[in-house]
Each structure stands twice: as C-alpha cells, then as structure tokens.
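Collaborator request, handled under Task 6.
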Amino acid sequence: MSKVPIGCEPVVGSLTPSKKKEYRVTNRLQEGKRPLYAVVFNFIDAVYFNVFATVGGNRVTVYQCLEGGVIAVLQSYIDEDKDESFYTVSWACNIDGSPLVVAGGINGILRVIDAGNEKIHKSFVGHGDSINEIRTQALKPSLVVSASKDESVRLWNVHTGICILVFAGAGGHRNEVLSVDFHPSDIYRIASCGMDNTVKIWSMKEFWTYVEKSFTWTDLPSKFPTKYVQFPIFIASVHNNYVDCNRWLGDFILSKSVDNEIVLWEPKMKEHSPGEGTVDILQKYPVPECDIWFIKFSCDFHYKAAAIGNREGKIFVWDLQTSPPTLIARLSHVQSKLPIRQTAMSFDGSTILSCCEDGTIWRWDVVATS
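Structure tokens returned to the collaborator:
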C-alpha cells in the first residue's frame, strides 16, 4: 500500500480564525482498482471508536486508525458474487454486543458480517433492486434501515433476520430512495430522500409492537407479519433535483442535492394533517464543484461539524454549531483529483477519511496548534 509522506500539502484557505482547523494528509491507501462508495467509523461501540469499514466492488474491508497516521487492515470480506458492487456499509450490534458490519449494493441483498468471528452472520433478501444506503438505530443497534432503488425503505432486525416494516406504497417515494436516517432521540422516526426530489419523514409509532415482536420471534423470519407503512407524516420539497443524502440534526434536517450546497431546514408539520406542512430553510453550507449525485457527507459523533467531498477530490468541513455558517477547513491535495463519494469523521472530528473513485482511502488528521 502506497503512503503519502507525512506533512504533504497543508490545508489552504483563509478562514475564521476562531474556528479554523488545520488538517494534513497522514496516509493514503490504494485499496483496489474499483471505486469506493462508502466509508464509516464505528460509533455504535466505544471500544471500536477508531475502527472503520469501507466498501467497493464486491469487497468489505475493516481497518483501524492508529497513532501517527497508520491505518491497519483488520479483515477483508470478498462476496461470493463477483458482480456484486457494494454501495453502502453501516456498523450494527448483535444482541450479545458483538460488532456487525452490514453492507448492501447492486444485488439488493444485505450482507451482515460478524466482525468478531469474521463470518457471514446473515443475508437478507427482500429488496427488488439495489441498496443505496444502510443506517443503524443508535438507540437500538440491532435495528437497521435500508434505502433501495426499488422505491422502498425497509426496517430489519439483524439479530433475528426479520424484515419488520416496509416504508412504501401510496404515499411512498416515486423513484430510487438514495438515503435514510434515524432520528437521534425519537426512536419512532426516520427520514428518507431520493430521486423523486423529496424528503419524507415517517413514523413507526403505531407499528412499534411489531418492532418489539421481532426480538422474540422464534419462527421462520419469512413467517413474520411484515407491515407496510404507506404514508409518511411529512413530505418536503426542499430541492429541485435528486436528494442523495439526508441526516437529522436534532429535530432539523441536513440534506443535499446536486446544487453545490448542504441545506439545513426545519420541518413544520401540521398537527392534524399528516404529510402536510411547511419548511423553514435555516442555513446553507456551500460546497463548490459538488454537482454530481451520490456524494454523501458525514458528521462527528456529536454533530459539531460536517465533512463533504466534491467531484474534484477536495473536502469541505463546516461547523454545524455556528450561525452564519463557518467553514472550518478546506482540504486539498495535488494527488486527490477524483470524486469523493463519502467521507467519515472520527468520534471527535480530529480525523477525516475520504473514499474515492480511484479506489483510494485518504486520511487527514488535525494538526495540533499551540
């Protein structure tokens, strides 16, 4: 694996002194030839705070960030299907606490890998087309949601292998679902977005007994009474094009399209009219040259900052706690020229990873300032 000499090209850009951070490249790995679509730190278990996973082609790889910019390979999983192309990966947890890696892609199958014993734990078949994103419920980390090209979002129990709920139907998305996220404190809520240019907020409250039932189900998973959630509680048209990433920021939502910006907005629901309401746009975070779809941003554990790559291989780091928005850092390197599909910020935001179209992983670390 090739390494970039430590200290290459410091961050450039004149930024607000109080918030400016300087990052430098401490490592660059060539994982393979195929594009890498996702990279994610393990925020589920504090023991593994510096462990991350990547996906590209039919491979899922688990790494650890060590001192001095070192990246150690812990394990690699090659899917039996050579034509599989993974687009997304998320960390989850089994009932006994063992770490799981959940990946999905072009085949529409969720592969659940037991990272403890390096074996496939389960494979979930249900989606009728490719999977674009998987996210884990931090409050109940055996629950994951998957967003698919088949216009649906599915809720799964990784412990029992049950598909509990399908968010689709009369009020559902009308094109590929590209992103989905669990509300950080309201366990019943998720937000999804996609190629129909909308963001939809869904509630599981009236179906929660099925979620609880999924943990104690002993019959075949296929016999579980999977329920359809057909109507979201809120539909927002914030963007005029594909919406390819959405994340909750408290009760607000961060979302992005192909308009060179991330938008922070507040959904204002009408209490007695499900699905209806208004949107208050609160802030916009510009991201130059970010006009292609399937570029996803990431945040640190406490959602203090967001990092996003663009199609030219640059990374923009925005402070999420200031108004007006403050650009913390603009990261660029002479050898990073291709689209960055996803970034991953470490627990405290001191490390930023990016995964690129050319199969490289870049590691940036904050430079200690006196």
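The cover message to the collaborator said: "The longest strand covers residues 277-286. The CA atoms of residues 258 and 293 lie 6 Å apart. Please let us know whether this matches your experimental observations."
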